[in-house]
Amino acid sequence: MAGVQLAITLDSKTIELLDALVAHEQYPDRNSAIIAVLHERLDTTSENQFQRELAKLDAGEEVAFAELGMTSDMKEWPEY
Known about the structure:
Layout: H1 12-23, H2 30-55, H3 59-67, H4 70-76
């Protein structure tokens, strides 16, 4: 996928931390480090959003909904 160039301004402390990641060979360059950190943050944000939505569900209600109609279906299943 082709990238889009983006100009950002970072404070000197952030640049030092970024350069330390590159110096310790965790990333080949600043660009790769920034992309990796952004992806990690975006993945975490998506996971947190999923967890928040999941917490809104009523487990008992979900089980009842899943089992809706199971009684009649079970009568049609063969014995094992």
